[in-house]
Design brief:
The chain is an alpha/beta fold and about 650 residues long. It folds into three domains: about 120 residues, Tetratricopeptide repeat domain (Serine Threonine Protein Phosphatase 5, Tetratricopeptide repeat), CATH 1.25.40; about 160 residues, Rossmann fold (3-Layer(aba) Sandwich); about 180 residues, Rossmann fold (3-Layer(aba) Sandwich), CATH 3.40.50.2000. The protein is about 55% helix and about 10% strand. It has 28 helices and 13 strands. A seven-stranded parallel sheet has the order 3-2-1-4-5-6-7, covered by helices on one side. The protein has a six-stranded parallel sheet with strand order 10-9-8-11-12-13, sandwiched between helices. Helix 8 runs antiparallel to helix 9 and helix 14 runs antiparallel to helix 15. It starts with a helix and ends with a helix.
Amino acid sequence: MTRAAEAQRFFAEGVERQRRGDLLTAAARFRDAIRCVPGLAEAHASLGATLLALGEAKGAAQSLEAAVALKRVQPAAWLALGLARGALGDPRARASLRSAVSLDPSQAAGHRALGAVARLSAIDPTDADGWIAVAVRAIEAGNRLAASRAARRTVALAPGRIEGHGNLGLLLQEQGDLDLAQRFYRRGLAIDARHAGLWNNLGNALTDIAAIVAAYRRALEIAPGDLATHSNLLFALNYLPGLGSDALFEEYRAWEGLHARPLYAQARPAANDRDPERPLRIGYLSADFRSNPIAHNVIGLIERRDRAMFQAFCYGEVARPDEVTRRYQAASDGYRSTVGIGDEEVAAMIRADRIDVLFCMAGHTAGNRLLVCARKPAPVQISYGDLSTTGLVTMDWWLTDPVIHPADTRERFTEKLLRIPLLVLHEPPAEAPEVGPLPARSAGVVTFGSCNNAAKLNDRVFQLWARVLAAVPKSQLLLKYVNWFANPSARARILDAFEQRGVAASRILFDGERLPRARHLEILNRIDIGLDPFPFNGCTTTFEALWMGVPVVTLAGERWLGRMGIGTLSAIGLDKLAAPDEDAYVAVAAALAGDLPALAEIRAGMRRRVAASPLVDAGGYARTVEAAFRDAWRAWCRS
């Protein structure tokens, strides 16, 4: 390999690491690229931007000065250089920012940065209010360095001001340092225990589901009308073991009564042409048109649609678009950003686009716009991808399938069920490595594993997984979820739970590194058998495990979140891995571990099995969803 080719390989890996938030490794890869080709301007620029995000202003400025010396027409590099110089108090900061704006006048970040630098230079260095204003503005602009500097200055100047602790907590949480984020939130709450926002943010930074729910409830006791916190609570309750369907339904209805019911009067009679067979205009409402599992699950539906019969309009609550956003923009007939636009205005936008069927993809997840749906801007509204019912009277249908919601389902919902053969489509990861040989053959022990959100790991899960480990002597369990397990408190919670159940800490393995997707998937080549948590099963995590040859044992639950596992396994003909009860779960896992030749055979053929299944058939999926859209539309035309 030539030095130039090697430099490009290092640079590409650095870009991917940077995109995934692994900034330390990204910086190392950019330095490797520069060692190979010292004149690679893009590597100097990327190294400078990475160091800036890490708070190393001096090193950032040096790298960015090298970048613009090599290639002056780099608006982003000039912007980063301006920010680095501003952080150092260098009077050349403003000139650098002006260079960025002059090279790209449309660059909003450059204009915002000029304003932030002006604000920094204008305020009294001892003015805590000024530093709070700068921190807030920098957080909104995505400028971590300026935000961190201003927040720390606030704390130093006025340790009794909550805002500094809260802003630092947000920044640390975003970087994955949950332990330190929690510490700053708790410091703020020590100043004012009735600060609802800090209780909500603390809930976002915790990993124990009981503590998360308690934090959100405390926030709502203080501010019962806070919409985002109330949705956060509903989201968290779905992780809680032992909460019955009736109790969960009542929680959703309480949200509806407080937030949505007062808006139903704003619904207007639809003027859409009631021709049941005409081409339809479908609206997709989501905060997930970005690198996100939901986006990858739905993009095939839009890209492979019957364009003669279904137009697609996307309404995206996406503040920071990425390459996945651009796929949605390219695939749709119209992409509308809803960022900064009120719910009533978004509803008006949907009415103006004459949408026939509104496909709500956000539910009660972060950034949702459910109150748009409460205003009923489209005659037919369908919920997809929510964790439970929306609770809305104005939501007509809930898209599902016969496995997730069998005829005798006891789950409760306000919508009518709209069943298709298979609910979730997956997009095979192009960057996936090859499936490796069975790890147990070389390791000498069976490795169970889970890459699910640590909040899904509750006491019942620990109890059952401890039974699995007891049934397979010398086996071990590998846990991975982005970089959560880099936090000592997250690891300690897990180890303590297993030690209480007789499992030695040496049998529990962690990976705490935030990795690009290809490297993340490579972790699965260390796992022999996947263990699915409950009552909230894995979805994308289960698909990724199967794609990498790892069979996953699941416990079939009562609600749809507890039936994602059996739904996925049924689609590839492996529903025998879905246990009806906990005893069967242990038996299935132990049987797989007890027959390594059979396990190796399953692994070797798994990717072919998945590739031939409906799980990845985007064209077939599009046809089934379009048929459901048509059925729902015909029902409205008859009404």
